[in-house]
Amino acid sequence: MAPQARPERHPGIRPRPTIWRRLDAAARRALPVTFSAVLVLLLCAPLDLPQQQALLPGAAMGSVFFWSVFRPASMPATMVFLLGLLTDLLSFSPPGVAILTLLIVHAIGLGARHALARQGFLLVWLLFLLVAAGAIALDWVLACAFALRLLPLQPVCLELALAAGLYPLLSALFTWAHRGMADPDRA
Amino acid sequence: MFRLSIQLRQALSKLTLPLLIGLACVVMLLGQADRRLAEQARVAVSDSVAPFYALLATPIEQLRGVGDQARSLVDVARQNERLRAENDRLRRWYDVALALAAENATLKANLHWMPEPTPSFVTARAVADASGIYARSVLLSVAPGRSLSKGMVAIDAAGLVGRVTEVGARSARVMLITDMTSRVPVTLEASHANAIVTGTNAAAPRLMDYPEEIRPEEGERVVTSSVAGAFPAGLPVGTVHYLGPNEAVVEPYAQLDHVTVLRLFDYGLSGIVPPEAPGHVSPERPGRIAPPSPIQSPSQAPHALLGTAPVGRG
User: Fold this and answer.
1) What does pTM read for this prediction?
2) What ipTM is given for this predicted complex?
3) Angle at CA B286, nearest 5°, toward B284 and B289?
4) CATH match of B121-305 with 2.40.10.350
């Protein structure tokens, strides 16, 4: 879906778009993807966090979902694809699985954004839970298919629980960034 | 860049997502079909992010140190409990060690002094010096009911005094080692040679019957020997002293000229049944004190027991 032109928040005389201003706006636009990529990189770093690998899908899906719903211009599909590729290559999962799940999450978020934009946080969270459950289930099915045997379901449940718990934190952080740091209109 | 119509652009943008999903499926299939390719891609990505992770390593290590500290702070109560229990245990061992050290010091201090009084003993006061012209003995007053027996070894604070030779209802007689009939098998402490301390009724008994090749040294310690089963080994008797060139005597540790309090030890030794009274030796018992020295001539023993002082070699 094409990024829609936002109605001007401060109509009237605007400052001239100098090169620095444009750079600033570009940086703000790129912030969500950059942040997501850094998050993925950090969660694949040897931090020795408990259940660090199980944290990764929730974090990636949460950030993709949030930005797909609230500012798809900053989370284009190609970037989601690249994020998925990065996740796949860093996390040693079967290649392509994370790309597919993240793209599906992105698509659902994009499709539901008009309905969700005016809803409260709880409904968004609930939808995210459903989407994440589906995506993680797909992940598990694909992993089983590639491994040609049934894999245990316990890590799947752990991933889902961690995704559910992580989303409010990410949502709070992203909401704050959405209104300030990552807002290109403030450049 | 050529311009596209709005319709085409919208169509393209709508196609992007399905296209990318298809591409994801292609990547998936490719990854399964050619695992080496996937592996190479992974290695390339890992190589590129490795310096970044290396940069992260130091702060992560510091953070982990902080985390460990916080964990140990949280754990401090349990740790304290464990350490307190351990401290109690170690304190018990400390007491044990102190007791052992004290015991060790005592044992070391007593090593050259008195034997460990493991055998049962009674303490008695010497009430009279029962020495006659031909005998050296003391009389002890004993409480009624005290079980004394012949052959008990009498020791004062410093060393061997003698043996119990007579036991009465309220008294007992102790023959001193200076008595003319007293023969005490001894060991010279430095040379480990056996010898006999022979009483002569003089203040210092003579040292006799030591091996020819041994020359007792002046001041050498003399302790009892367990030869013949009359005395336990190691009771201090006295030190060697030379009255003349070949006249070795033993200066007793015990104060035999004024005996006051004696300890009577029952070592349960019955190798020798002491004579009934000092100076009165029944004739069927000569030779009971077997001279340990190989140079002892057999004829000397009865003479000695009969009170005729044998000719000492010393």
Assistant:
1) 0.49
2) 0.78
3) 135
4) yes
